[in-house]
Amino acid sequence: MNLKRLAPLLPIPATFALGAAAAHAWLARAPHRFAVDLAQPLVVVTSWGAYGAGALAIFVATVVVAATALVLAIRSGARTAQAGDTAAIVAIATLAIGSAFAWPFVFSSDTYAYAAYGAMAASGLDPYAPLPGSAHGAFYEAARWQWSGPYPVCIYGPAFVGIASLVVRAAGAHGVAATLTALRLLAAGAFLGSIPLLDRALAGASRRLRYVALCAYGLNPICLWSVAEGHNDALLLCFVMAAAAIARRHAALGAFLLGLGPLLKAPGLALAGGAALEPRLRGPDPKRFAYALAAGLAVTCVFALPPLVRALGTLSGHRPPAPDLAAPIAGLALAAIVGAYALHRLRGGDPAGGAWLGIAVFFAIPHPYPWYALWLVPWCLGSDGPASRALWAATISSVTRYLPDVTGNLSPGIATIASVVAALPLGFALRDVLLGPRLKPPDSTQEKAPVSP
Questions:
Q1: Which DSSP string corresponds to 345-393?
Q2: DSSP notation for 305-320
Q3: Backbone angles phi, psi at 135, to 5 degrees
Q4: pLDDT single digits (tens) 31-70
């Protein structure tokens, strides 16, 4: 590893470390009414009012500075990209995630649910059904406290439930805190492992474009933070990147594995569909690729649909107040229009169509939480134009979606406003619509575009 290649990227983990110091100083001034929150195994900033907004402000500043440092580093480092840059990026990502672990709080309770689902599976209970009121245990009580009552039934694939169960079996005897840390470390390891897998999937692209793609993926500040929070999307990404890398040499096997992605989490279905549109993954026999992908999806349906149907049946049994459907319907309509435009671009052989598909997915999400960036960023890697940059910027601005949760103002109107603000950077993609056919990279005759999983 060339240590000189690390220097331009060091501000990213340094920024997270400074943010951790500021967060510790801020938490030291926490009002006494948050004493119970601070006593939990993993402190989650939820419904903290103005004090929670202050904690989020520290995080927003950290993300903005880190993202700016990353953009500057990419601009200077891409011109001199080298074969060993992947190791440098992995090293910097490791330092950044370690610095994120040093923060005294997170903004999501998801790891509590993961541990509870794993404990249920390990005890023979069905995580796709509500926990019986008679069931008690450290993991159940911790999750109940986070959700102020019954926590949601599991909506993840059975493969992830099995992984969570293994983690609970391995670390559960050491307590809830140790198990949550194990789940977070598992996510971190999966994400770090996915970076060299992505590099393999990008075989054939120039070093410059590979450097840009690896930095945009592996050093995205929101992705780094989401991994440190322990989100299981990192496991899905690692699996998809491995399948994409395999597909470059063995298209049918890679396609079959891509079809198994939803066994971890449902977004694997979207990522598999995106991969099916990438000609460099399909190989010389697209029909064989399609059949193998369909076979993988069929296996997924056999194992994933029954438990998910049980979970949906449980949810349908509750009658919450009718939500305001105007915003979701508008989002889906816009997603359909953008998706049609994306397919048009892809049919014309334009790799920017992949970024537009990612934008369509963004609009289809009712409320784009920051950790969704983990499976939105791969759509940015197919081109280096305005659409890709706009989608990448939207993953950064998604940090605003934390605001309603940390302050406790969870009204649909506030949540919608936060989601709209998160989507504002996508407006810059309009430049690609107006100038797309005429936009060409300066060295387009010498380089191939990276693969978008």
A1: HHHTT-THHHHHHHHHHHHHSSS--GGGHHHHGGGGGG--SHHHHHHHH
A2: HHHHHHHHHHHHT--P
A3: -85, 130
A4: 999 999 999 999 999 999 999 999 999 999 999 999 999 9
- Dmax over Cα atoms in the chain, in whole Å? 67
Could you give the count of Cα atoms lying within 13 Å of 22 in the half-sphere of its Cβ?
Answer: 16
105: CB partners within 8 A, 6+ apart: 23, 27, 43, 44, 45, 55
Q: What is the pLDDT of residues 320-331, one digit of tens each?
A: 555 566 777 888
Residue 106 in tokens: 């997170």
Nearest to 38 by CA among 50, 24, 49: 24
Nearest to 345 by CA among 452, 240, 248: 452
> What is the spatial distance between Cα 79 and Cα 68, in angstroms, rounded to a whole number?
18
pLDDT of residue 450: 40
Whether residue 356 is predicted with pLDDT greater than 80 in this model: the reply is yes
**β-strand partners of 44:** 106
Residues 6 or more apart in contact with residue 196 via CB below 8 angstroms: 86, 90
From CA 236, how far away is CA 184, in angstroms rounded?
14
132 CB burial (10 A radius; 0-12, 13-18, 19+): exposed
Residue ranges per structural domain of the chain: 17-109+179-316+325-438
Reported as half-sphere exposure (CB side, CA atoms, 13 A), residue 264 has a value of 25
